[in-house]
Design a protein that fits this description.
The protein has about 70 residues and is mostly helical. It contains three helices and two strands, in the order αβαβα. It has a two-stranded parallel sheet. It starts with a helix and ends with a helix.
Length: about 70
């Protein structure tokens, strides 16, 4: 289990890796967690940030997908 700070750092490393390997890439970050404020550094690192954490339909679909894949 990683702390929120560690997850942010890992995500930033992934975004940077994508940018290095494909400078023409368009990166969209979709957040499904309960915490909307993920930090400005992540938001400015991507081309688009979409928060879906409090969207009930998305959360139900996510739970269903997780259960189907088990």
């Amino acid at each position: 289990v990683y702390s929120p700070t560690e997850r942010i750092e890992q995500t930033l490393q992934t975004i940077n890796s994508i940018r290095v390997r494909n400078s023409n890439s368009r990166i969209i970050l979709m957040e499904l967690g309960k915490q909307k404020d993920i930090g400005e550094e992540l938001i400015v690192a991507v081309d688009e940030y979409i928060y879906l954490g409090k969207n009930l339909i998305v959360n139900i679909l996510f739970i269903l997908i997780l259960n189907i894949s088990r």
